[in-house]
Design goal:
Keywords: Phosphoprotein, Two-component regulatory system. One of its GO terms (biological process) is phosphorelay signal transduction system. This is Response regulator receiver domain-containing protein. It comes from Cereibacter ovatus. This protein is an alpha/beta fold. It has a single domain, classed as Response regulator (Rossmann fold). Helix content is 43%, strand content 16%. It has 6 helices and 5 strands. The protein has a 5-stranded parallel sheet with strand order 2-1-3-4-5, with helices on both faces. Strand 3, helix 4 and strand 4 form a beta-alpha-beta unit. Helix 3 runs parallel beside helix 4. It is globular. The chain starts with 6 loop residues before the first helix and ends with a helix.
């Protein structure tokens, strides 16, 4: 039996084909969870949304660090995914503001194109629990998030 086709399913199937990837679907694995995703790249926000939408998580997407701080002040999140290199206020700066604003324990994941050992160490010192390197691999993303919110 073939299930309903949505633009998200078509996009994921196209990405599967294009990248030669096969990954298990985990529908609903993060239902009743709210994630904040901040990245200045519209393409990266689209990709993260496509990767995470099937999990059932409530996703709030913003384009910069200042918007991330505003969203975190207005809503409770179970996880933050913050790009380290955003204009105006980068991910580390946004995380510092979010922590100072009364959200000291929400797990945060740095998303970055730079994954050198010194970058990883700097992200951990800034308060990130984990780092995901771009290009983001869906299974790595799901494993990282799962380990943080189910622990």
């Amino acid at each position: 039996m073939i299930g309903p086709v949505s633009s998200g399913n078509v996009a994921l199937s196209f990405l599967d084909h294009l990248l030669g990837l096969r990954w298990p679907r985990r529908p609903g694995c993060f239902s009743r969870r709210r994630f904040l995703l901040a990245d200045d790249s519209a393409a990266m926000r689209f990709l993260l949304r496509e990767y995470l939408a099937p999990t059932g998580a409530d996703l709030v997407l913003v384009a910069d660090g200042r918007q991330a701080v505003e969203a975190a002040a207005a809503h409770r999140f179970d996880l933050l995914l913050l790009d380290l290199s955003m204009p105006e206020l980068d991910g580390a700066g946004a995380l510092a503001h979010i922590r100072a604003g009364g959200r000291p324990t929400v797990p945060a994941v740095a998303v970055t194109a730079e994954s050198a050992p010194d970058e990883v160490a700097a992200a951990l010192r800034a308060g990130f629990a984990a780092l995901i390197a771009k290009p983001v691999q869906r299974e790595k993303l799901l494993q990282t998030i799962g380990s943080l919110i189910h622990s």
